[in-house]
C-alpha cells in the first residue's frame, strides 16, 4: 500500500470489525514493531503496549467501555450533537455516532484490544503535557497505519479512561504507567475505505499569523 493511500484511508473501523475471526498475535506484533519506530521526546521510549486477547479480560474492559459510552452519549456532547445546523455534516455525525454506539455495545467482543501506555515516573506533569502524550500517540497512529496495510481495522478511542483506574487494576498496570489510547483490532469486512470529507485547507490554514 502506498503511504498516501494508507494515510488517507485509515479510518476508525467499528461496525465493520470482524468479531468472529481470530487475529494472529504475530500480526499484532508486526504492527507494534513498526509503532516502535515512532519519535519520542528525548528518545525516551517510555511506552508500553498491553495486548489483551483473553475473553474474560476483554469482556470486563468492554463493560467499562459500555458504561463510559452510555454516560458520554447521555451528556449530549457526543458526535451526534455536533453541527446540527449543517445538514450535510449532521448526517455524517449521525453515522459516526451510530457506529460509535455499536462499538460501545461490542468492545468486549473485539478479538484484540491494544492499550497504548506511557511511563510517568514522577506522575503526570503539571501544565502542558504535550511532550508526554506526544511521545506515545504518534506510535499509536503508526500502529493503526500498519494494521490497515495488513488488512486489520482499528479505532482510536479514549472513552475507557473514565475507568482508567479500574482497567489498570484489572490488567495489573503499575501506578506510574498511564493509559493513553485503546485500539480495538480485528480484521475488517469489505474494503471500500476512502478519504473522508474534511474542511477545506484554506479554512484552517494560517500563514505567518492567525
TrEMBL record:
Which Pfam family would be a valid example here? Nitroreductase
Domain called Nitroreductase: residue spans: 9-175
Per its UniProt entry, which superkingdom is the organism in? Bacteria
Keyword tags:
Oxidoreductase
One GO term in the molecular function aspect is: oxidoreductase activity
Keyword Oxidoreductase listed? The answer is yes
The record's annotation in InterPro entries points to: Nitroreductase, Nitroreductase-like
Protein family membership: Belongs to the nitroreductase family.
Q: Protein name, please? A: Nitroreductase
Amino acid at each position: 500500500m502506498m503511504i498516501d493511500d494508507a494515510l488517507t484511508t485509515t479510518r476508525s473501523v467499528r461496525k465493520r470489525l470482524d468479531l468472529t475471526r481470530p487475529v494472529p498475535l504475530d500480526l499484532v506484533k508486526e504492527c507494534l514493531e513498526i509503532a516502535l519506530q515512532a519519535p519520542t521526546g528525548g528518545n525516551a521510549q517510555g511506552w508500553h503496549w498491553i495486548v489483551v486477547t483473553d475473553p474474560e479480560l476483554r469482556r470486563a474492559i468492554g463493560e467499562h467501555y459500555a458504561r463510559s459510552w452510555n454516560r458520554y452519549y447521555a451528556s449530549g456532547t457526543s458526535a451526534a450533537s455536533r453541527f446540527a445546523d449543517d445538514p450535510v455534516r449532521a448526517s455524517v455525525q449521525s453515522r459516526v455516532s451510530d457506529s460509535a454506539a455499536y462499538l460501545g455495545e461490542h468492545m468486549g467482543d473485539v478479538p484484540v484490544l491494544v492499550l497504548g501506555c506511557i511511563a510517568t515516573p514522577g506522575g503526570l506533569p503539571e501544565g502542558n503535557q504535550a511532550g508526554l502524550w506526544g511521545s506515545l500517540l504518534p506510535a499509536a497512529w503508526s500502529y493503526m497505519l500498519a494494521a490497515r496495510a495488513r488488512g486489520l481495522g482499528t479505532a482510536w478511542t479514549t472513552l475507557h479512561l473514565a475507568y482508567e483506574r479500574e482497567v489498570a487494576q484489572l490488567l495489573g498496570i503499575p501506578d506510574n504507567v498511564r493509559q493513553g489510547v485503546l485500539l480495538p483490532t480485528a480484521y475488517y469486512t469489505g474494503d471500500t475505505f476512502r478519504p473522508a470529507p474534511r474542511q477545506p485547507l484554506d479554512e484552517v490554514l494560517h500563514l505567518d499569523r492567525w
